[in-house]
């Protein structure tokens, strides 16, 4: 009787392991796809920055326009927050929030660091970098799911080993 029960337990554990393995492969595929999308967006953003620098001149689009420690305080135009409502395997997922003007805070458009009349390429670069940031946040969430799935696989392999040892 116990031999039959352990055989059924082994079958159930193996079925769950198979499903988790397929899930992990799908998560890996999704992570690779998101990583490639983020990389392509970053490359495109850099190309648009290079075009804007060519159009405006090499000193008009450079690190000299970026804020320094002595610059006025400002709030980032995009922030990443944990989403406690949507938990992935017990951990909070992350989401990107584009911030607007809040009371007492100055949200500064980074494109304005380079002047008022800037080429369209600078606006395109900003959009591509924002998209890359969104894909990076999604990649982190997928990575967390993948890590949790791999932990479950390790636990079930230990259970499988104990069942086989009986």
Secondary structure category:
mainly alpha
What fraction of the residues are assigned to beta strands by DSSP? Answer: 5-15%
Helix residue percentage: 55-70%
- Uncertain stretches of 5 or more adjacent residues: none
Total domains: 1
Strand order of the largest sheet: 1-2
Radius of gyration: 24 Å
For the record, give the distance between the C-alpha atoms at the N and C termini, rounded to a whole number. Answer: 13 Å
How many extended strands? 2
H/E series = HEEH
Main β-sheet: number of strands, strand sense, barrel status?
2 strands, antiparallel
Per the principal axes of the C-alpha atoms, what is the gross shape?
A: elongated
Helix count equals 2
Query: Average pLDDT, to the nearest integer?
Result: 85
3D architecture notes:
With 166 residues, the protein is mainly alpha-helical. It has one domain (2-65, 113-165). It is 61% helix and 11% strand. The chain contains 2 helices and 2 strands. Strand 1 (78-88) and strand 2 (91-98) form a beta hairpin. Helix 1 packs antiparallel against helix 2 (120-165). The longest helix is centred in the first third of the chain and has 55 residues, at 2-56. The two termini are 13 Å apart.
